[in-house]
């Protein structure tokens, strides 16, 4: 302040301290802490709960740039020990031992380009669109399972099973084996029936191993006797005579399952929760659904992704050389986490970012990432989100939250964020 201003001579105001990250309250509502980071330390080196130190990137412009910066490698081999303090781990639990590392989210060009081109031949937007009737059928069956009861846990009975059955169907996992997948996926998410104990120690690693072995065998069988499913498509897909090896196909099937499962659980869970907490907007959307306005529904799903998206941070990136992000010097080998949830609430990009606006136009959120690793499953995710929310609003028009928001527990892993349970009530139908 200049000499004449009323503040002259007053001690400089102490900057308000950084709110704690990664504790209980943070999982329930990380947005105030992200607002603080965006404003005071938009690129911040931070110790994660695992002990690893990583740079958190929270502003939209920096985040978008970092996601497309090829000097940031996806290969964990670039992780420098100096950042790790020994005990921290990056990646999917149980994955190292399972030899499933060569998947899209862990590799760079030219391997990434080759594998992505091959999988894109089998997993096309058209294939996702063809799947709509099956997703509708699954959705209706799940709602039938609890509609007469007048109450349900929408995570356990709806958001959790829908994507796992949908992806199993799409991959070509026979119906009789899909409950095994549901159990393994439950282990991997440490998801369990409310009131029952969680998975035993080592259960996650064992579940990944079982899934890996099952997929390897299924791929072998589909190579011998192909069908009209995605795994057969993966084994057939070729580019200039090149084909996926069996190990690459197994890693690809695994990442499709892994990347397409918890994300969609959280899209349905977080999305429904946001609708339940914004009754005016939800009533408008219900009217649009009743009027068959598919465009309004699609626009709403994009806003739910922006407002409280399933993927809190994009997956790991590592600096292959010293570089700058938002004016901070990132050292070679340093891990960088792009905080999509913070970027998507940046007031420099979005008008009234903390307000849910289901009709928001020009919504360039980063919920599906950006650049060469942009979500391969976005067409399927959009379809599942649209059908799930439409069916809920249509079939349970008076659905309401049956718990105080403060009682709800969040699954706050580093990369994903979603509810553990979502108890609701409705007029039984
Ligand atoms: C990549 C989000 C559903 C398959 C990504 C990335 C994000 C994302 C943010 C980029 C990660 C990064 O750059 O580090 C989401 C969200 C979903 C969803 C929010 C649901 C609402 C799905 C589904 C599938 C899928 C249903 C497949 C069945 C993939 C794959 C990649 C990916 C294979 C890696 C692409 C690459 O590295 O080239 N997803 N995803 N996702 N997603 Fe999704």
TrEMBL record:
It comes from the Bacteria. Residues 72-92 are annotated as: Disordered. Pfam families: p450 (PF00067). SUPFAM superfamilies: Cytochrome P450. Residues 1-13 have a biased composition (Low complexity). InterPro entries: Cyt_P450 (IPR001128), Cyt_P450_B (IPR002397), Cyt_P450_sf (IPR036396). Belongs to the cytochrome P450 family. PANTHER family: CYTOCHROME P450 YJIB-RELATED, P450, PUTATIVE (EUROFUNG)-RELATED. This is Cytochrome P450 hydroxylase. It comes from Streptomyces daqingensis. The lineage of its organism: Bacteria, Bacillati, Actinomycetota, Actinomycetes, Kitasatosporales.
